[in-house]
Design brief:
By secondary structure, the protein is mainly α. It contains ten helices and no strands.
Amino acid sequence: RSPVAAAAHLLAGQGVVAVVALLVNVLAARTMGPAGRGSLAFLLQAAYVVGAIGVAGVDRAYPATAAPGVGLSTATRDVARLRGWPPACTALLVAVVGWLVAPGWSAVGLAGMTVATVAGVGLRTAAAASSSGATFAASAVAGQGALLAGCAGLALVGVSDPLPWLAVYAAIGVPPLLVWATLRRSAAPLDPGRLATARRLGVQVLPATLATMVALRADRLMLPWLASFGQLGLYVIVATLTELV
């Protein structure tokens, strides 16, 4: 397993995500209009923030502490174990955020999107630690293909409610979850010492991770309150292009 080859696969997977994000952005903007696109962007950003708390810094800590030559199945099981301690806290955060910003069924969609975010980041973390990026790339292609197809269907029907779009976004977590379930069956025994080190390091870097995320995406959280969801929708259309670059 070459780290260069793994990096190429990881980059390819992220490239697919970026391109699909641009295409979905165009479909959503043309179908929902600025206000609907802004509402969807706000809910997605809230899910990303809560998902980062659920990951608890594992995405940065585990690749730095994993045993040399760790296999993908073992890395996947390790990451699942490391993410195992904050599920109650994550669920509580989803409930609180959902009640504050997305009452009703939107809170359910927000929870589903959070799970999808955590699953995708977890699989990417395991792939980086084990230098086995092909599985992550395949999962990314499958998930993003489903996302693009689902959003294209919503655009074709003319669905302007952000909730069905959020539900389609949440569905991209299914391929990573299926990969996790398959790989964990053949995982080697865990190394408690390394896991404890990774968990401690993850908690230490979590504030920096959240600070970076808020600094980069605070605009999407603040614009609805400073202006309107319609203004956020117009902003996101441009921001998606710059992020792709």
